Amino acid sequence: MSRLMHVVSGPYAPPAPARELVAVSADGARLHVEVHGPENAPPVVLAHGWTCSTAFWAAQIRDLAVDHRVIAYDQRGHGRSPASPACTTHALADDLEAVLGETLAPGERAVIVGHSMGGMTVMAASTRPRFREHAAAVLLCSTGSSRLVAESLVLPFRAGGLRTWLTARVLGSRAPLGPVTPVARRILKYATMGAGSAPHMVEACARIVHACPRAVRHAWSEVLAGLDLDHGVRELKVPTAVIAGTADRLTPPVHARALAAALPNCVGSTELPGLGHMTPIEAPELVSGRIRELVTAYATTSTADTADAAETASTANTADRAAHTASIDRTAESVQSAESVESVQSVESVQSVETLKEGA
Question: Strands, DSSP E only, in 50-126?
Answer without folding.
Answer: 69-73, 110-115
